[in-house]
Amino acid sequence: MDWETRQNPERLVKTFRFANFQEAMVFANKVAELAEAKGHHPRLTVEWGRVTVEWWTHSAGGITEKDREMARLTDALLR
């Protein structure tokens, strides 16, 4: 998995790049649908041509197996 681990809080982070804002928004909405379906929600930052997704579990104070699974499912949205 090619996600970066950052601290404070410990979390998985990845920036996805797109050709334009509209494509970035389509992807962000897919991530939102995934999050709702799984009951686990990321921090999403949408900018022109990119979406940064951050997964961690607040109650655990960091990364859990659920976050790793959500990161894998997020990657799969591009396939």
From TrEMBL:
It holds the Pfam family Pterin_4a. It comes from the Bacteria. InterPro entries: PCD_sf, Pterin-4-alpha-carb_dehyd, Pterin_deHydtase. It catalyses: (4aS,6R)-4a-hydroxy-L-erythro-5,6,7,8-tetrahydrobiopterin = (6R)-L-erythro-6,7-dihydrobiopterin + H2O. Keywords: Lyase. Signal peptide: none annotated. This is 4a-hydroxytetrahydrobiopterin dehydratase. GO terms for biological process: tetrahydrobiopterin biosynthetic process. GO terms for molecular function: 4-alpha-hydroxytetrahydrobiopterin dehydratase activity. The lineage of its organism: Bacteria, Thermotogati, Deinococcota, Deinococci, Thermales. Its EC number is 4.2.1.96. It is an enzyme of class 4 (lyase). SUPFAM superfamilies: PCD-like. Belongs to the pterin-4-alpha-carbinolamine dehydratase family.
